[in-house]
Amino acid sequence: GCWSGSTTILRDGKPYILYTGMNEENQQVQNLACPKNLSDPYLREWVKAPENPVMSPTTLNQLDASSFRDPTTAWLGLDGRYKVIIGNKRDRLGRAILYRSKDFIHWIKAKNPLHSANDTGMWECPDFFPVFKNSLNGAETSMIGSDVRHVLKVSLSDAQYDHYTIGTYNHDNDIYVPDKGSVDNSSGLGYDSGNFYASKTFFDSEKDRRILWGWIKESSSVKGWSGLQAVPRTIWLDSFGKQLLQWPIKEIQKLRGRHTNIPTQILKGGSILEVPVNTGITASQADVEIVFEMPDLKNAEKSNSSWTNPRELCSQKGAGVKGGVGPFGLLVLASHGLQEYTAIFFRIFKAQSNYVVLMCSDQSRSSLNEDNDKTIYGTFVDVDPTVLAEKLSLRTLIDHSIVESFGCGGKSIITARVYPTLAINDEAHLYAFNNGTQQVKMLTFSAWSMKEAQIN
Length: 456
Description:
The chain is mainly β. The protein has 2 domains: 5-248, Tachylectin-2, Chain A, CATH 2.115.10; 256-450, Exo-inulinase, domain 1 (Jelly Rolls, Sandwich), CATH 2.60.120.560. Helix content is 2%, strand content 46%. It contains 1 helix and 33 strands. The strands form 6 sheets. Strands 20, 21, 23, 29, 30, 31 and 33 form a 7-stranded antiparallel sheet that branches. Strands 22, 24, 25, 26, 27, 28 and 32 form a 7-stranded mixed sheet that branches. Strands 5, 6, 7, 8, 9 and 10 form a 6-stranded antiparallel sheet that branches. It is globular, with a radius of gyration of 23 Å.
């Protein structure tokens, strides 16, 4: 079999794939493959190495043979050895098992994992890479130095959540230490608060950027196994070093077609504003950008100290629940009479000493088919509403059953999978809305129809 794996380009410029397979004893093992024909620009055929498997569970290393998978892209250490981590667990202890090799064929397991964390379960699809402290550019995977931090991302199998920490890599001891205060479980930092899992980054050397891919799983019981990849995203460290930011790669803009703008206007409480049908925007396949001026906060609802789970809070206070400041945002894949819609919106609450900004993706009315998954997603956004220069922006990519939303310049992202029965193709509509008592000012609203991707 062939499970997840990663490609590494070695010092001689040749690419090799490390991937997980199963041996005759149904143990998870790591295998190696190389291109059959390096002159093929698409590298369409690969050959398995005769030395396979190159890493295996044994009685000596005592690795759980059912939880040993998904090797990362390797990095080259200052000691001249390639290093790679593999997801693993021991009971409830999640681990990134470290292996080293001089030739990429013969691998030796390190005594200690690169990192581990209690009570986190299986770590799937780990990823380990550097990020620049003060640059939007991506860093090559083997880079170390005072101008980079390191990111360890793991896909938490139990929570089905892509979690990451930012920290320091001690390359002498091959140990990764998350920053003080980092939460090393599913309540900590994550790439995406919605339907997004088993992600992987790679360094694009031609354009000096790191690109993130992720898996959007199927959420309809009737469609079966038909997950697909999310839009590729550029990823970098924010200027405060606290979190990663993400944004759709700029090539996505090449798919933009017919365009419309709605001028600045006030959205009063309870109002809804449709993108006119005669603009020619295909609301079922669109790229939408909307920016709100930070509203007057005098009517903000009081926050409760027990509101620590944003998903639960979004479920309690969905788009149909009138608030003080918010909910305001977008209704996408909406039917003409609003029997169906998916709402992506903000709410602002007044805590004891600050304000809290909540971003939600509410799928509760996304389909009249009650058999579909209608999970509501949510996340807190790290912005300060009292700073006038701050804006609440939202970019949402709509592709029939997929809604990917990027809040506040990529600080918070939510991906959803929805299956409307009425709001499909030309019957889909697009709205801006405000269901709070406080009016909000919509500074800009731009929408583009998106062309079909041309796949060779």
